[in-house]
Design brief:
heterodimer, A: four-stranded antiparallel sheet, B: 310 residues, alpha+beta, five-stranded antiparallel sheet, four-stranded antiparallel sheet, 33% helix, elongated
Chain lengths: 320, 310
């Protein structure tokens, strides 16, 4: 236990005392492990509880702490028989975590997470899914299960993958290191044998994932635990300063582009249009954007005839 | 001199057991460890103020009420046990372990779940940490915690949104496509509205709890781009190449498949009531999809592409 302030120690005691009160002589070992303290730290806090109570602080108005043969009892503390209610922040952390886990594709809708969530939400006065709804992103449950299992057992996986930005299907063998949801989609990170480097793949663009018999050695740098795999808020959009930029004038019906994509600049024009600079990323991405916008966007710089060339290519399918 | 933790614990006990609100002077005499108010009024005041804010910060519902029978009226302090106590959710051990796993697997930036876990009885010793992997990291917004509190309390809120003051009954928070949203009833516009939390500026101010009844949520489903456009519905048929067939079928409602050809390409049918949305959906497949029927939709696509290809 790191050194805690008086307020932090109070917060902890107001949870520990009710738990001991509610149980018939739990062991010091169990209490300290439940509340993330060493036994010595717990004993020091209990020494203090022993001195506390209510006016006039006669023996019968103090809390009574009995420690015998490694077990602990607290009596005369009926005012601390229940823990302090959850703060909005704590309630949010619980409900958000539970709702998110319940949204993982393939999660059991009647499993312990869903049941726990319903009970906690009821205490908070909300209904799961009614007051807070979390959608991590869609992914085929089978692909997710295969990849999570392969991450845990260090098995290589063969992917049939669609690279959206290049409009290309490929088979590749990867060594999956982490599977996670971020910014509305599911991803797997791992070493890709075809690229000879680490790559990130979106689960909803994996047509199939097959676990191979070959295992791989887990890189030592992988630390398991909440802090390990994804340090900090994940940013899956990480533009390269050398990526080409495209400048577009957006009409009223195309202004959503500035909200949907991270634009580097946005300037209102006198004619009511919005001039934006976007990282163009890969060609197929830009083609889709321009084809969808059609006359609602005008290319000012950076994309020349990308839209026209793409339009001719699609049009050719209608002339077969 | 007892340490501050002892004083805070005794103060909490005194407030929880008070049958009538206690004045600051009464608390000074009932809780050991304060500077004597008659000898050093300022020092007592500072210590007492500091303790009050410590209790409030950790969520202890400290009430300030007028002490009955005082004239001129004096303020007194009390904590009502029904406000203070966490109702027992009655979690079974497997449910407790599941919550523990959820908190380990999902991180909400800026909101720690460990205090919540302690209040529910602490970590289950030997409980499974699951695979120990972080499965999802959710971003946070400054307005998220106060809005969640207001949703739970059914308290009307005021905030600034895109430079305008809003006055909203907050019904529901949702996280979707990487953003947090609030659904609620906008009093100024007299209509239900959705707000994106990252566009709320400044503070969220909540009124008293219980200010409205939360409407039950209509079972909504994701709206597909070709729906709800107000165009007269027509059945459209689309050919999709083998390379894109799985994604087309995944995006379309069950039963859309009309035919699967030997080369793996598919023919699908979908009811279109938003023609612009349908065009965008089809163009997402680039040159791997072609509108077959009806002629008016096929012609509209050809016109759109012809105009662009010049």
């Amino acid at each position: 236990m790191a050194r805690r302030s008086a307020a932090e120690r109070l917060r902890l005691l107001l949870a520990v005392v009710p738990w001991i009160v509610a149980h018939d002589g739990p062991t010091l070992d169990e209490v300290s492990r439940r509340f993330d303290m060493t036994e010595d730290e717990l004993l020091a806090e209990l020494d203090l509880v022993f001195l506390c109570g209510v006016h006039p602080f006669t023996p019968d108005s103090l809390m009574d702490v009995v420690i015998e043969e490694g077990r602990v009892w607290i009596r005369y503390a009926d005012y601390f028989e229940r823990p302090l209610r959850l703060t909005p922040e704590e309630g949010l952390a619980l409900v958000a975590a539970g709702s998110a886990l319940a949204d993982v594709p393939g999660a059991d809708p009647n499993g312990p997470v869903a049941r726990a969530l319903a009970k906690v939400a009821a205490v908070l006065g909300v209904e799961p899914g009614e007051a807070l709804d979390i959608q991590l992103g869609s992914a085929p449950a089978e692909t997710l299960a295969t990849l999570r299992e392969a991450v845990a057992s260090h098995h290589q996986v063969e992917l049939d993958y669609y690279t959206y930005g290049r409009d290309e299907r490929s088979q590749r063998v990867i060594e999956p290191r982490a599977v996670y949801a971020a910014e509305g989609a599911w991803y797997v990170d791992g070493f890709c044998h075809r690229a000879g480097a680490d790559r990130r793949f979106r689960l909803d663009r994996i047509a199939s994932a097959t676990r191979l018999d070959t295992t791989f050695e887990a890189p030592e740098t992988v630390v398991r635990g909440p802090e390990a795999v994804v340090p900090g808020p994940v940013s899956v959009f990480d533009p390269d300063p050398d990526d080409p930029r495209v400048v577009l004038d957006l009409g009223p019906r195309a202004r959503w582009v500035a909200e949907q994509y991270p634009v580097e600049t946005a300037d209102e024009l006198a004619d009511g249009r919005l001039r934006v600079t976007l990282v163009a990323g890969e060609r197929a991405w830009l083609e889709r954007l321009l084809l969808r916008l059609g006359p609602d966007a005008e290319v000012v710089a950076g994309a020349d005839d990308v839209g026209a060339v793409a339009a001719r290519r699609v049009l050719a399918r209608y002339q077969d | 001199m007892p340490d501050r933790l002892e004083r805070l614990l005794n103060l909490t006990a005194a407030l929880l057991t008070a049958s009538t609100p206690l004045t600051a002077a009464e608390l000074a005499s009932r809780v050991p460890g304060y500077p004597d108010p008659s000898a050093n009024r300022d020092a007592f005041h500072r210590a007492f103020e500091r303790d009050k804010s410590a209790l409030r910060e950790m969520g202890i519902p400290l009430r300030v009420l007028e002490v009955p029978g005082t004239d001129p009226p004096e303020s007194g302090y009390v904590v009502r046990r029904e406000d203070y106590a966490l109702a027992d959710p009655g979690l079974d051990p497997d449910e407790m372990a599941a919550l523990q796993l959820a908190l380990a697997a999902v991180r909400l930036d800026g909101a720690s779940g460990s205090e919540a876990l302690f209040k529910l009885g602490g970590a289950t010793p030997g409980g499974s940490g699951g695979e120990g992997w972080l499965l999802a990291a959710l971003p946070t917004e400054a307005s998220l915690v106060p809005l969640f509190g207001a949703v739970a309390d059914r308290a009307t809120v005021r905030f600034q949104y895109r430079g305008e003051a809003r006055h909203v009954d907050p019904h529901r928070l949702s996280f979707s496509r990487g953003h947090w949203y609030l659904d609620g009833y906008d009093h100024d516009r007299a209509a239900d509205r959705q707000f994106r939390l990252d566009r709320i500026d400044g503070e969220v101010v909540a009124a008293e709890p219980g200010g409205f009844d939360r409407p039950s949520r209509s079972p909504d489903r994701a709206v597909s781009p070709w729906e709800l456009g107000g165009d007269p519905p027509v059945e459209a048929r689309l050919a999709v190449d083998a390379s894109q067939a799985e994604w087309a079928l995944a995006a379309l409602p069950d039963g859309s498949l009309v035919a699967r050809h030997p080369d793996g390409s598919v023919e699908v049918a979908v009811s279109v009531s938003n023609r612009d949305g349908f065009r965008s959906f089809v163009l997402g497949f680039l040159d791997h999809a072609v509108v077959l029927e009806p002629p008016e939709l096929r012609d509209a696509m050809v016109d759109w592409l012809s105009a662009m290809s010049r």
